[in-house]
Amino acid sequence: MSVHEQFAEDLALHALGSLDGSERDALQKHLEECASCRSELELLRGDLSLLALTAAGPKPPARARERLMSAIAREPRLPMAASASEPKQRSWWASFGWPGLRWASAVAVVLVGIGLLWQNSTLLRNLASERARFTDQESKLRQANEVVATLLDPDATRIELVAAGNKPQPRGKAIYQRRTRNLIFFASNLPPLPAEKIYELWLFPANGGPPIPAGLFKPDARGSATVVNPPLPQGVEAKNFVVTLEPDSGSHESPRGTPVIVGVGE
Amino acid sequence: MPSADPNAITSDVALVAASRSGDRGAMAALYDRYSSIVYSVALRVLHDTGAAEDVLQDIFMQLWRNPGAFDASRGNMVAWLAVITRNRAIDALRRRRPENDIEDVVVSVEHDLASEADRSRTMVKVRGALQAMPAPQRSALEMAYFEGLTHSEIAGKTGEPLGTIKTRIRTGLLTLRKVLAT
After folding, report:
1. Within 10 Å of residue B105's Cβ, how many Cβ atoms?
2. Which of B136, B148, B10 is nearest to B92 (CA)?
3. Pick from A233, A97, A247, A96: which is nearest to A176 by CA?
4. pLDDT digits (tens, 9 = 90+) for A64-84
5. Is B85's CB within 8 Å of A20's CB?
């Protein structure tokens, strides 16, 4: 193999990933045009893989396998179409003796074939449609997961914008879906908790019933807090949500403390 | 040059094809076959079991998501996994975003690595070749490969000229290739 000598050492460095800047750019440009240097780069990577084998020894813990298999189970895939290279079957209809019967058989085979082709194309269309639907849903799910992960990430930066010159006030936002009992609540700018106190979120039912506890929480150092899907009874229509400052101990089934923020409706 | 065991290669290819069709069992079989190599390489680079487990997870998840990245016609699986694992581990060590897509990494190995016994024989040969190298050459190669140091960093660390380090790395790799070819 004829490797261009001026690139010989850079090829080894590139295989290691330690080439950068103009040297890397020049080599990349050369590799686009030079098949022998590309082959040498692949061989150098092969040499490096042999070096990796000297590290062989330790085995991963069993939990690593469980972790992988759980992650894979969460990312299912639709099976791909079967291979087109199916073995051909021996011709059988030639064994019929009568020419007329052969013709009739041929017509029947053609008709069945047309039927199968039509059925096959319908199935393929359905499969393509299902695939597109799955891909679309997968994409939406990924986006939804990313949104939720960002909303719930304690390390995410949370900055509330208020009218210029105004001091940030305690605020909260409750998003509630009665049918699914899903509730997401975000609070910001809450004052630090006094000793032996805790914040509690309440759902006030539209039917005038007593307030329902919807989660105890403590804000972080910046006064932010999140409550996600607290246990709630089925099918309660919400009239309002309120956050109160409650004693840390004792029962939290009905409000005893003072309201801190109160819902104003949409 | 010995040729690879066709059954073993077919088996890897068949497992990748099955995992492409969503067969989790095939993926589990690939994991059982190669997780030890992947984990060992990551651990050797990172010296941290938790970080090595993360790289192990990352490599096999990438294979699950993109099984077509492994081009069986241009190399064997263990060599390819070793190279992409080392690269990912160095990225993790340097706390940088992965620089290369795994499908861009083509690895060509002329040695038979299909079975565990083949790999053990090769490992013994490579270790022997490394031991036989002059210490500065072996050291330059290991610093570049397992510590992810650039040739400039190695030159700075050892006080040797940059050109000397470049030459040592290349000749070290060619020595390995030559020893294994005999």
Report:
1. 18
2. B148
3. A233
4. 999 999 999 888 764 444 333
5. no
Tell me which long-range contacts A206-211 makes (C-beta under 8 A, separation of at least 24): A206/A237, A206/A238, A206/A239, A207/A237, A210/A254, A211/A242, A211/A254, A211/A255
Structural domains in chain B, CATH included, are 1-110 (1.10.1740.10), 115-182 (1.10.10.10)
Give chain A positions within 8 Å (CB) of B173: 12, 15, 44, 47-48, 51
Structure tokens belonging to residue A134: 């799955």
- Tokens 């053609």, located at residue: A110
Question: What residues of chain A lie within 8 A of the CB of B56, using their CB?
Answer: 60, 64, 68
- How far is the alpha carbon of A15 from chain B, nearest alpha carbon, in Å? 9
Query: In angstroms, rounded to a whole number, what is the distance separating the alpha carbons of residues B106 and B113?
Result: 16
For B130, the closest chain A residue by CA position comes to A51
Tokens coding A114: 């047309």
3-state helix, strand, coil split of chain B in percent (to 5) is 75, 0, 25
Chain B residues inside the 8 Å CB shell of A72: 24, 27, 61, 64
| Digit-coded pLDDT (tens) for B2-37 | 444 444 444 788 888 888 888 899 999 999 999 999
Q: Which residue has the tokens 């990748």?
A: B16
A46 → closest Cβ in B31, B108, B151: B108
- pTM here is 0.55
Domains of chain A plus CATH, in order, are: 5-51 (no CATH), 171-262 (2.60.40)
Is B24–A69 a contact, with Cβ atoms under 8 angstroms apart?
Answer: yes
CA nearest A183: which of A141, A217, A121, A229? A229
Q: Which amino acid is at B20?
A: R
- Which residue is closest to A59 within chain B, CA to CA? B36
Beta-carbon separation of B105 and A45 below 8 A: yes
Using a CB-CB cut-off of 8 Å, the residues of chain A touching B126 are 50-51, 53-54
Q: What single string gives the DSSP state of each residue in B7-66? A: HHHHHHHHHHHHHHTT-HHHHHHHHHHHHHHHHHHHHHHH--HHHHHHHHHHHHHHHHH-
Phi and psi (nearest 5°) for A114?
Answer: -60, -45
Residue A217's DSSP bridge partners are A199
Which residues from chain A sit within 8 angstroms of residue B26, using beta carbons? none
Place of tokens 């059988």: A92
Structure ipTM: 0.82
Of A75, A7, A74, give the one whose Cα is nearest residue A39: A7
